[in-house]
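Handoff note, outgoing to incoming analyst
You'll be picking up this chain. Sequence as last confirmed:
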Amino acid sequence: MNTPRRAAGAGFGLHTAAAVVVANMIGTGVFTSLGFQLESLRSGFALLMLWVVGGVAAVCGALTYAELGSTIRRSGGEYTFLSHIYHPAAGFVSGWISATIGFAAPTALAAITFGTYLSSVFPVLPSRWLAVGLVVLLSVVHGRTHRTSGGFQRWSTTAKVALILALVAAGLSFVAEPREVGVLPSADGVSNVFSAGFAVSLIFVSYSYSGWNAATYVTGELRDPRRTLPRALAAGTLLVMLLYVGLNYVFLRAAPAEEMVGRLEVGYIAAGYIFGPVGADLMGITLALLLVSTVSAMVLAGPRVLHAIGEDYPTFRFLSSINARGTPGAAIFTQAAISLLFILTESFETILVFSGFTMGLNTFLAAGGVFLLRRRQASGRQSATGEGPDADEPYRTWGYPVTPLVFLAVTGWTLAYILRDRPLEAGLGLGLIAVGLGIYAVTRARDRRTRA
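Most recent structure output, in case you need it:
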């Protein structure tokens, strides 16, 4: 198993790695889900606790992944983890999922949303071609040097955080008639937390937190991954949790709950109460700018999965090539091509319905693998990944074993709920896994014939 080749001193540092985490997590979910949560929950305490509970689970997952990534020091995220911990077939299926619904489809969705927001403010601009242009432009940026790629990601993510902080500050300062949110626990609020409505809403909150694992996709290109990876994962996830809680508090404080119930555009509604008549246009431009960073992070992280697959399977060897500047150009532009196909056909919408199940299963299996790694290290087993007592000591998950168990409990409950109450989506997800296994079998057979 090879790691990406790079010159001494090259690669990504802590700021860039944390920026990838933050940018991958903050998309449109936090600006759209409150309206559906209000259909079953009206307690401000319970609504904000949704984002706290989801954030705690994400932090626990991030700390667990930090140990996996600093032990198995190679880019690729779950593809790499599952290949080494369980079986190459498990890793291949994970990579298959990541390459389709994991990165390419969400990249397309975020790009289309970017174009939609901008064209709603400036109707003369065609939304679909704005989306195409954004994906192409960012693929070129990230296909250059690590310095260019990392610099753009840091700048765009910093701008995203600054815009959200400005929105929170405006919501705290400029609302003429603020609503009572009720952040302290009450009997009604506590009962809401243990209700079925809270459980259902937590599923969508978990989707909004997806992306906390993004830095593990570039582990092999990090400077000092043992120190950088855990700091980037934990700091990025904690920052997003604070931003999510702040945003939802402002939405509840600014706009009447009755106007947001069942509505997607809660950000627009709240902006109207914060900024007045021009609020919608300001929010449209703001959300478009926020999505530049989101698309950028997916274009940066996702191709590392394709690159790792190309290194391991001769059939996909073309994906493993690295350009003269040390970046996986072939993988970057392959993912861009898949994303453009989704944009031009919009066929990705059906996939996104069940993406939460398949990606959740990915992270559940990966996080559970930390117990297997610990067992192997304790028994003195070694592998090509550097596991074992003679390897450099990896980062150890803070709070182990409670930390990974908290993440597994929340994620496992979500998966069980989808299996029970959303059998169609779960079935489609399992079908996608079966297709991945079929492609793996064909690929392995072809590679064996090629070697022979």
